[in-house]
Write a structure and sequence with these properties.
The chain is 31% helix and 23% strand. It is of the alpha/beta class and 284 residues long. It has a single domain, classed as Vaccinia Virus protein VP39 (Rossmann fold). It has a seven-stranded mixed beta sheet with strand order 3-2-1-4-5-11-8, sandwiched between helices. A two-stranded antiparallel sheet has the order 6-7. Helix 4 links the parallel strand 2 and strand 3. Helix 5 crosses helix 7 and helix 8 packs across helix 9. Keywords: Methyltransferase, Transferase. InterPro entries: Diverse_substrate_MTase, Methyltransf_25, SAM-dependent_MTases_sf. Pfam families: Methyltransf_25.
Length: 284
């Protein structure tokens, strides 16, 4: 079974996909489980040796907390703004064993060598999955692991929260009013969404599995208007550059919408559980 590529979905990647989103990403996105490093340390039997590769690492969301579990780590991303933010956050956190490389996933192996673990945090759908899976398979140590990390997708109960949820439907409608009814992505559109079929692609590339881990998160966060605005601008389909000269108008309407949705400008959101899928190289 062959997974559909992004181009077969009528869209081609370009470097403006997340242009301008980097300063908003860490603040706007809900966090993964705080104990994710400990869970992966046990599941992957990590002992401080080996190297970690984070493909499309963004602002270092995953590679920075995981890097201390390895001898060295490499964060790869095609967006210069994301790498600058990752580097800043790494220096702030005192993480010094990460090398930052600007490159697309399709440009791997890029002379980076071999790795014990390659991690993809909700990024695999943005690339040529078959090509990248095959390349990463060859970059892994014989006992290495391909690790996909994501939020659990089922709806979370809205009851029992001290503040209202952000008005997700209203935000979507406002974005559509400014950018059109078809999802934007870089210089193109994604009328059919991003490709799926990850399991089939990885099996065809020579991986076995997956081992599925679910890391529970029992946490509700208080979010401000600025936090919700940051989330909107952190998304590829509402990245700041897409609004062009209309950005200030959109921003004003977005803030008005949020102010009307909460009397005191505070919202509550439950943080979803973190899901981890571990794939291992198939044995001959």
């Amino acid at each position: 079974m062959k997974s559909a590529s992004a181009s077969e979905h009528g869209w081609e990647w370009d470097e403006s996909l997340f242009a301008g989103s980097a300063p908003y990403y860490s603040r706007g996105r809900l966090p993964y489980a705080a104990n994710l490093p400990e869970v992966l340390e046990q599941a992957l039997d990590l002992d401080g040796s080996g190297r970690l590769l984070d493909v499309d690492c963004g602002p270092g969301t995953v590679v920075l907390p995981l890097a201390p579990l390895f001898e060295a780590a490499v964060g790869v991303d095609p967006d210069a703004g994301m790498l600058a933010e990752a580097r800043r956050r790494g220096e702030q956190a005192g993480v010094r064993n990460v090398r930052w490389v600007r490159a697309r996933a399709e440009e791997l192996p890029a002379g980076l060598g071999t790795f014990r673990v390659a991690v993809f945090a909700q990024s695999f759908h943005w690339m040529d999955q078959a090509q990248v899976a095959g390349t990463v398979r060859r970059m892994l140590d014989p006992d290495g692991a391909f690790v996909h990390i994501s939020d659990a997708k089922e709806p979370l109960p809205p009851d029992g929260l001290p503040h209202p949820l952000p008005p997700a439907h209203g935000i979507r409608e406002l974005v559509r009013r400014h950018l059109g009814p078809v999802r934007r992505a870089g210089q193109g559109v994604l009328p059919h969404g991003t490709p799926g079929g990850e399991a089939a692609v990885l099996a065809q590339a020579g991986f076995a599995g997956p081992e599925r881990l679910r890391v529970p998160v029992d946490l509700a966060l208080e979010r401000t208007v600025d936090d919700v605005v940051a989330f909107v601008y952190s998304r590829s389909d509402s990245a700041p550059h897409l609004f062009g000269p209309g950005l200030a108008e959109f921003d004003g309407e977005l803030r008005s919408l949020l102010t009307e949705a909460s009397d005191d400008g505070r919202f509550s959101e439950r943080v979803p559980d973190t899901e981890v899928f571990v794939w291992r190289p198939s044995r001959p």
